[in-house]
Design brief:
The complex is a heterotrimer of chains A (345), B (553) and C (125). Chain A contains 14 helices and 2 strands. With 345 residues, chain A is mainly alpha-helical. Chain A has a two-stranded antiparallel sheet. The longest helix of chain A is centred in the first third of the chain and has 29 residues. By secondary structure, chain C is mostly helical. Chain C contains 5 helices and 2 strands. Chain C has a two-stranded antiparallel sheet with strand order 1-2. Classes of the chains: A mainly alpha (345), B mainly alpha (553), C mainly alpha (125). The interface between A and B is large, with 106 and 127 residues.
Chain lengths: 345, 553, 125
């Protein structure tokens, strides 16, 4: 069910877009919905981040993954345990662009004995990197359709991505890599028992959705081509707020753009917000300098004070005096035959 | 000890169907109900303790005190307990950005799954850190997200029910907030934060455990977890001084609550009365005597540890406040802290913010070497390992490491110093200079990837012994490895909970290994002025390598 | 604490990245490609729709059959014979690379490698 429902949902989206395109609702699916989607995406994304930022970071809680800044002759791990802004930036860079933490991944197994073993396991890191980077390249490459004239990086990306010159039009490596990456990530989810157990429909849905987006894109590029000039006219039109649909574009395109719109709308309300969250995770984006610099907690309650020394001494003064521990207030003079300690006992 | 013998439990861990042995539950996790039976839960706090603490705190924090039975299906919760929890969750979402982000960002990649020592030892799927967080996320989605409200279970959402509450009580007390999972999480999601929030929420409806709250209540009133009163504390240390005199011939008379001392020394109270912590304490005493340090102990702030940090923020702050309060009252210049794990998490990451500014103190400066501890410039508290490492570096200690030649030592990084502080090399540097034979455990089990003792955060209680032995297995297994390979017979650590719990753990899994604090080994190696010509035994009266006299105890 | 400044900066950068096509396009107005056929023949070997979307497929199929398989048979459409050749076929009608091919290719950043082997016919103004 967890897998089936999201699958049906994506199929449903495809059918809706197909029927819409067949029914001639091209401006709804080509113009209105994409605009709506980008607005929901932007507003939703910003609102989510603003909502996060309305809660303070009350304590500095970086997870230190190396030697801290300590005595000058002890070598600090300035990236994994940064004490300065520049160290934090380096740590965040590694985390965001190279998935540093995933690179540490191990796989634990138990054997008779009992014996635990931790093997290196970089598959998730690799699959994740494959997926995210090819997705990024694809999004950037799509800028060729949204801009006129094109920015400098488009031909460079096209050259690099199509470097193998296989087929006509040449196969973009990112297309192959993203589909493979998605497939491998999906396989992890269904074949690894632990990951399967923890997976929710909300984990399968984006996988299927992005897979469908990438496949319809590939279909349009390699197999069931449609007139890309009309597509670009529409895309640039969208970007310049004069959208026009100048001629017939195949339903496949409307399916593609509807799925992308769905992804954009879904994004801010889902786990996909990890894209924004990774920048704001307090265990990664804070310097480990909390003993060096005082950090302020806005809701720190000044009225919450410890059980006072005075009341402590009041309770134990006799014992303290008897044990020769200095006290702030001396014992009141007492009749000699009843020492305080005995009274209490 | 656990009901099961180590070899039986060993077979059970490796063979019995669990997620670690590739068995998969047939039901969805939302349909699996927590079942409490003797041995898998900690006893609830005594009514009197909850009442007492309730009066010490702002209203509501502790919930209504009552007698309740964990195994029963009636926990005698207040009628509006769900509201209390949901309100509490809302408040905490507004107070902690970490919680909001950790609720929203998880992609369930599974990187954390087999990083948790509780999961490795039990194979219980809900001990995967991601699941532990999902227990709360599911409720969060149901109450606070549109998708959860509309799609319900399809969006991984579920309402707050008694079943969920049972899950929380079960699994937020099967987490030691060790943060190992957060090292591996691509977004740094820290289950310690989740567990802290979970426990706070449980406290709101007075679902709590005695092993945490009794020490808290003691600590609040008497200054230390065991409730030792001032004269008893002093006496205990005097006994230790007697032993020191017998072993070394040196008579030490430390001062208590002394105004005008340069340094206030605070260590977990366990070091004053329980084996093997007392040997660590003897190490401190010898070290300070060796240096002629102008320092004092305090009976009021006689607890370094802070079990408040295992219950609620308010209690953590209340207990922590004593350190600065006492430092101010005594007029010391700075504070030196003993070997403790969670104490240092609190001191390092919370104290300055929570109880500071410590503007009545000076930046810690070693009176012996003149080193200024700039890394403690604001909080003004320095770790004994930093202090000792600096002394050794400057050649200020007369050491004979061969006095530890009867020990083949490995070092256990305690969770909090390693992952909440970055104190990794200092104790190693000290060890290297006081012990000749040191071997590291395997790479994936030390430093920032270190494994918890399995009994932190107030779970070091006898009623869950099997659980503790399971959770400690990853640590024990790594010790076993160096024991077999290098003959390691001593596991050293800079944590008081470790010293107590690892002793039990070693006794169970690797019986030939003893547990020590690093300062005990320092104490053994110190050549004191005017000491006996021949040191025959170590601080625990154990025979030294090559000495002819047998240990007398 | 709140790091308001950092959050706002981050969000501004985010919005700038997402709206890249909007502000990038402000610089120049869109020019719609206008491929010119400079001869009188107004029909092709395939219908217009097919050619607009799939001409590269036709060309690559021809290349395969002619160059690799040596089948130089001509195609006849509406009684007119065409050589299956880029330079000697297509470019008889679509004479100018600049005015025909490049119009669209440059518009959507397509860079076929025809001229890696073929010699470009001279452009006649």
């Amino acid at each position: 069910m967890k897998i089936l429902y999201p699958f049906i949902a994506v199929i449903g989206l495809i059918v809706i877009a197909f029927l819409g395109a067949e029914a001639g609702l091209s401006s709804l699916f080509g113009i209105v919905i994409p605009y709506l989607a980008i607005i929901i995406f932007l507003v939703g994304f910003i609102r989510k981040v603003v909502d996060w930022s309305k809660s303070p970071v009350p304590f500095r809680i970086p997870t230190t993954c190396g030697q801290a800044n300590s005595l000058p002759w002890i070598k600090q791990n300035k990236i994994e345990c940064p004490s300065t802004m520049s160290g934090v930036l380096k740590r965040m860079f590694l985390e965001i662009f190279l998935f540093r933490s995933l690179f540490r991944n191990t796989q634990a197994d138990i054997y008779d004995g009992p014996k635990l073993r931790y093997g290196s396991s970089k598959y998730l890191w690799l699959f994740g990197l494959m997926f995210h980077y090819s997705f990024l390249v694809i999004i950037l490459r799509h800028m060729r359709l949204f801009t006129d004239p094109m920015p400098f990086f488009i031909p460079i990306l096209r050259f690099g991505d199509g470097f193998l010159q296989i087929g006509t039009p040449p196969i973009m490596m990112s297309d192959v890599v993203i589909l493979t990456g998605l497939l491998l990530l999906f396989c992890r989810r269904i074949f690894l028992p632990k990951v399967r157990f923890i997976s929710l429909p909300a984990d399968y849905f984006p996988l299927f959705l992005i897979f469908a987006i990438a496949s319809t894109g590939c279909l349009m590029r390699y197999f069931m081509r449609t007139d890309v000039i009309y597509i670009k006219e529409l895309a640039v039109g969208l970007a310049t707020f004069h959208p026009t649909i100048a001629g017939h574009i195949s339903p496949l395109f409307y399916i593609h753009i509807f799925l992308v719109s769905s992804l954009l709308i879904y994004f801010p309300f889902s786990k996909l917000m990890h894209m924004g969250g990774i920048f704001m995770s307090p265990t990664r984006n804070l310097a480990n300098n909390s003993r060096m610099v005082r950090h302020i907690n806005p809701w720190n309650d000044p009225n919450l004070t410890p059980h006072s020394y005075a009341s402590y001494e009041d309770e134990f003064r006799e014992f303290m005096v008897e044990a020769g521990i200095p006290v702030d207030k001396e014992l009141p003079p007492k009749a000699e035959e009843t020492p305080a300690a005995e009274e209490k006992a | 000890m656990a009901d099961m013998k180590a070899d039986e439990l060993g077979v059970s861990v490796a063979r019995d169907p669990s997620m670690m042995t590739h068995a998969v539950p047939t039901k969805d996790w939302m349909d699996i109900e927590a079942v409490f039976k003797p041995g898998n839960y900690c006893y609830p706090a005594k009514t009197s303790i909850v009442e007492y603490l309730g009066k010490e705190l702002p209203p509501g924090v502790m919930g209504p005190a009552r007698d309740w039975d964990v195994e029963s299906d009636d926990w005698k919760l207040p009628d509006n307990w769900k509201e209390i929890i949901i309100d509490g969750l809302r408040q905490r979402l507004d107070k902690f950005r970490s919680l909001k982000i950790f609720m929203d960002c998880c992609v369930r990649c599974g990187a954390c799954a087999d990083k948790c020592h509780f999961f490795l030892g039990t194979g219980d799927p809900k001990n995967m850190p991601v699941m532990r967080a999902e227990l709360m996320r599911s409720v969060y989605r149901h109450e606070f997200t549109k998708a959860g409200k509309i799609l319900g279970r399809m969006a991984g959402a579920r309402p707050m029910t008694f079943k969920v509450l049972k899950d929380w009580f079960m699994y937020y007390y099967q987490c030691t907030e060790c943060r190992r999972c957060s090292v591996f999480c691509p977004y740094g999601i820290d289950t310690a934060e989740i567990t802290m929030m979970g426990r706070e929420l449980l406290h709101l409806v007075a679902v709590n455990i005695n092993w945490v709250l009794e020490p808290v209540s003691n600590s609040n009133r008497t200054g230390n977890h065991m409730g030792l009163q001032p004269h008893t504390l002093k006496e205990n240390v005097e006994y230790l001084c007697d032993d020191i005199e017998e072993i070394t011939g040196i008579k030490i008379t430390p001062s208590w609550n002394r105004k005008g001392a340069e340094i206030l020394f605070i260590t977990p109270s366990a070091d004053l009365f329980a084996e093997p912590g007392i040997y660590t304490c003897m190490g401190y005493l010898l070290l300070f005597e060796h240096l002629g340090l102008d320092y004092t102990w305090s009976t009021y702030a006689s607890e370094g540890g802070n079990f408040g940090s295992f219950s609620t923020n308010e209690l953590m702050k209340k207990l922590n406040g004593k350190m600065y309060a006492e430092a101010k009252r005594l007029g010391v210049k700075w504070i030196l802290g003993g070997e403790c794990g969670h104490m240092w998490r609190v001191v390092h990451q919370y104290m300055g913010t929570m109880t500071g500014p410590a503007d009545f103190l000076e930046v810690p400066k070693s009176p012996i070497t003149g080193t200024v501890f700039e890394n403690a410039a604001s909080t003004k508290m320095t770790h004994i390992s930093e202090f000792t490492a600096d002394l050794i570096r400057h050649g200020k200690l007369k050491l004979d490491p061969s006095r530890n030649d009867h020990r083949i030592v490995t070092f256990h990084d305690s969770c909090n110093p390693a992952r909440g502080m970055g104190l990794i090399e200092e104790p190693r540097y000290v060890l290297k200079h006081v012990v000749n034979k040191v071997h590291e455990m395997p790479e994936n089990t030390i430093r920032e990837k270190t494994f918890c003792c399995g009994s932190g955060t107030g779970l070091n209680t006898g009623e869950i012994m099997e659980l503790r032995m399971r959770a400690g297995l990853p640590r024990a297994n790594a010790v076993q490895y160096v024991h077999d390979k290098h003959g390691v017979n001593t596991l050293s650590a800079v944590c008081a909970i470790d010293r107590a719990t690892l002793s039990a753990l070693m006794g169970y899994w690797v019986p030939d290994v003893e547990v020590t604090g690093v300062s005990e080994l320092v104490g053994n190696a110190l050549i004191m002025d005017g000491e006996k010509e021949v040191r025959e035994t170590g601080l625990r009266f154990e025979a030294l390598a090559g000495s002819e006299g047998d240990a007398n105890v | 604490m709140y790091d308001k400044g950092k959050v706002i900066t981050g969000l501004v950068i985010f919005v700038l990245i997402v709206t890249f096509p909007v502000w990038y396009n402000v610089r120049g107005a869109q020019h719609i490609p206008n491929p010119k056929i400079l001869t009188k023949v107004k029909h092709c070997v395939k219908p217009l729709d097919y050619m607009r979307a799939d001409h590269m497929k036709l060309l690559i199929d021809w290349r395969y059959e002619v160059v690799r398989e040596g089948d130089r048979a001509k195609v006849t459409v509406d009684g007119v014979q065409y050589e299956r050749s880029l330079v000697n076929g297509c470019m008889k009608c679509h004479v100018s690379e600049k005015k025909f091919c490049d119009q669209c290719h440059e518009y959507v950043d397509v860079n076929p490698y025809c001229w890696d082997c073929h010699i470009k016919p001279k452009e006649t103004e």
